[in-house]
Write a structure and sequence with these properties.
The protein is of the alpha+beta class. Among the domains are: about 130 residues, Immunoglobulin-like; about 80 residues, Immunoglobulin-like. Helices cover about 15% and strands about 25% of the residues. It has 3 helices and 15 strands. The strands form 4 sheets. Strands 2-8-7-4-5 form a 5-stranded mixed beta sheet, with no helix packed on it. Strand 10 and strand 11 form a beta hairpin. The longest helix is centred in the first third of the chain and has 40 residues.
Length: about 350
């Protein structure tokens, strides 16, 4: 007998449930869950990125602070001065004040030891070698130089020396030319107190009777401009010349002083370049005789001393003293015992030809 054939189950149709839990609801749940996970991951990633970005900004602010992160200063910063670092210990304003400088004043001339005016020598002497600015000194003869200096002598000896000065329009280019002029100065006693025209050379000559170790100093308007080394000088005298390598010397009051090895100084010889000479009359309007007149341009440091000890200027008497036509300082010295070097009158005046100047204004 034939078996009966069972019919196959019908195939599942779309949109029909395939079994428990496999319907549309389950699929929707899965989709929602996935979306939720994505959202949560995005939130976490955003939070982490924001924190990292904040840290990066903070680090940048530490290295390169922006204006909003710089705290305003709480103390004033002191300024700096030249050569000094800024410091909060300095005052708010620091001014570098230079040391005070005194205005130029005319120092009171100091009198060298009293010396009588020089008389012309009776015989023409031979001058020792001289030096001249810009020209090497001449070779010294035997017995003259720093190796055979004579011993120190009485300071009164050099104190009695009186330099004579003369001005020359021409520049004395060699020591030989200077020596000729100094020989003439020693022989004649010439002393120019003023020279109005251009001057290229000034020579000084000092007559002396005994060997001395001396040096010398030139001054203009009270300031040293040249000097010589210590050396032996023999009788009958010595001299030096001052030049400016052929250019005219500056106007001013020039003085020459000799100094011995112990620092004692001679009288000062002076000449004013750029001024004319005036024969100034001084009258003794005091009640006592006058034995000395000290006079010098106001810009100079030393007086030239005119001594009248042998023949004092009596009350009412007068003398004539050559001076330069510039402002002069004067000291009048009396003759009474105990006066010493003290002046009985000290004053300044402007010379005027033909106008007598009282010795005690």
């Amino acid at each position: 007998m034939d078996e009966a054939v069972q019919p196959a189950p019908p195939a599942q149709q779309p949109n029909e449930p395939a079994g428990p839990g496999e319907g549309p609801d389950r699929r929707g749940f899965v989709i929602v869950a996935v979306l939720a996970l994505v959202v949560i991951a995005a939130i976490i990633a955003w939070s982490i990125g924001r924190r990292d970005a904040g840290d990066a900004i903070a680090r940048d602010e530490e290295r390169f602070p922006s204006p909003t992160t710089v705290a305003p200063p709480t103390t004033e910063v002191a300024p700096t001065t030249a050569g000094l670092p800024a410091s909060t210990e300095l005052p708010a304003t620091v001014a570098v004040t230079p040391p005070p400088t005194e205005p130029p004043t005319t120092p009171a001339p100091t009198a060298p030891p009293t010396a009588a005016p020089t008389a012309p020598p009776t015989a023409a002497p031979t001058a020792a070698p001289t030096t001249i600015a810009g020209v090497p000194p001449a070779t010294l003869p035997p017995g003259v130089g720093t190796t055979t200096l004579p011993p120190p002598t009485d300071p009164d000896i050099i104190g009695r020396l009186v330099p004579n000065l003369a001005a020359y329009a021409q520049f004395l280019t060699t020591p030989e030319q200077a020596k000729v002029e100094i020989d003439q100065l020693l022989a004649t006693g010439r002393h120019d107190v003023a020279a109005p025209g251009p001057v290229a050379t000034i020579c000084a000559a000092v007559r002396m009777d005994v060997p001395l170790a001396v040096n010398s100093r030139w001054e203009r308007d009270g300031r040293r401009i040249a000097s010589s080394d210590l050396g032996r000088r023999d009788a009958p005298g010595f001299g030096e010349c001052l030049g400016n390598d052929g250019d005219p010397l500056d106007d001013g009051s020039y003085q020459y002083v000799a100094i011995d090895s112990e620092g004692h100084e001679s009288a000062a010889g002076g000449i004013v370049v750029g001024a004319v000479r005036i024969d100034q009359v001084f009258t003794n309007n005091t009640r006592a005789p006058v034995c000395a007149i000290r006079v010098a341009p106001s810009v100079s440091r030393y007086f030239e001393v005119y001594v009248y000890t042998a023949s004092p200027i009596p009350p009412g008497g007068s003398v004539t003293v050559p001076v330069a036509d510039v402002g002069q300082d004067v000291e009048t010295v009396g003759c009474r015992a105990g006066d010493g070097d003290g002046a009985i009158a000290t004053f300044s005046f402007d010379p005027a030809p033909g106008v007598p100047q009282p010795l005690k204004p």
